[in-house]
Each structure stands twice: as structure tokens, then as C-alpha cells.
Amino acid sequence: MNGQIRARELRVIGASGDQLGVMPTARALDKAREVGLDLVEISPNAAPPVAKIVDWGKYQYQKMKEQQRNRKNAHSSEIKQMRLGLKISQNDLNIKLRKVRKFLLDGDKVKIQLIFRGREMAHPEVGRDLLSKILDQLSDVAVADNKPVMAGRNLNIIIRSNPHAKAKDAQGH
Questions:
Q1: CB count in 10 Å sphere of residue 94
Q2: What does the CA dihedral 8, 10, 14, 19 come to, rounded to 10 degrees?
Q3: pLDDT tens for the chain, residues 1 to 173
Q4: Are 40 and 56 in contact (CB under 8 A)?
Q5: pLDDT at 20 (0 to 100)
Q6: Closest by alpha carbon to 112, among 74, 142, 68, 73?
Q7: Are 85 and 96 in contact (CB under 8 A)?
Q8: 104, 79, 75, 151: which is closest to 96 by C-alpha?
Q9: Is-above-0.70 flag for pTM?
Q10: How far is 86 from 153, CA to CA, in rounded Å?
Q11: How many angstroms separate the CA atoms of 24 and 143, rounded?
Q12: Can the peptide bond before residue 48 be classed as cis, meaning omega within 30 degrees of 0?
């Protein structure tokens, strides 16, 4: 800003956004003082560096507000969890899958956890069949992040939204 600019020549942009051209730094500073504003280096790595004549306080305020808007609009992806038993009825499964579908369309990842109870542990293939059935029903919006993993009494898989499904959804298919 102002006297801290080390470049010999600058491409100067006026207060109203018009190009003033390439000029020596001293002349650019004089132009800024004439208008009663500051000379701020916007792009120091350009050749020649770009500087703009602005009101420094107003410029800082606008930058801060823009950062706040960006933080507000940023959506961080979460991992939601859906727990199911092996003996789940088709109706209950449909309700759970509807919730999973909503999570996926919101951009979240979903961890589906099948819980084995008692003697069900002797038949892990039943859980794998149920998981493949679930993945088939969600294949239009989901893709598996990894293979199903047995962790203690639970069979886990993490799924995420299919990027191609969002494109189809946006086109109205």
C-alpha cells in the first residue's frame, strides 16, 4: 500500500475501475493523492504488478464481508450414519434408504452399519447380501467409497453421492 510498494512500474487501475495504463510508482502515488485515496498493490506477481486506486478502509471492509459470505456458503461434508439390523423388514428398509438418499443429495457421506446379533455372526454372507441389495437400490445416487469391512459385530461401508447422478438430477432426468 502507498509507500510500501517496491515495484518501479505499475499497471494502474483507477477508482472507477478504468485502466490508467503502465506508469512509474511515484506518478501512480501522485494520482492517488490527487483523488484523496490510497494506492494498493492488487497483484504483485503480475508483470508489471497491478495496483488500484481505492479507499483502503472501504476495500478492507469489502474483503472482510466477502470472506464472511464465502464461509457462510461453504458446506462441509459430514459422515452421517445409518444403523440396520439383519432382520429389517422391507418397509423399514425403504424408510431408512429414503433418509440415506436425502443425506447423499445434500452432499454428505453415509456410513451404513449392519449390526449382527447372537447367532447372526455365523452368517456374514447374509449381511453382505443385504448390503449389495442396499447398494443396488441406491445405485442411481450413490457409489461405495470402500469395500464392506467387518468390525467386531458390525459390517460397515461408507458411500458417497455419485457425481454423475447430480448431473442427471440437474438436467431433470
A1: 11
A2: 140
A3: 777 787 888 898 888 888 888 888 888 888 888 888 888 888 888 888 898 888 888 888 988 998 888 887 776 677 899 999 999 999 999 999 999 999 988 888 999 999 999 999 998 899 999 999 999 999 889 888 889 999 899 999 999 888 776 545 544 44
A4: yes
A5: 86
A6: 142
A7: no
A8: 104
A9: no
A10: 12
A11: 57
A12: yes
Distance CA 126, CA 56 (A): 67
Cell of 34: 490527487
- Locus of grid cell 454423475: 164
Cell of 99: 433418509
- Bridge partners for 150 per DSSP: 155
Q: Which residue has the cell 461453504?
A: 74
Provide the grid cell at 5.
510498494
Q: Are 3 and 41 in contact (CB under 8 A)?
A: no
**Amino acid in position 83:** R
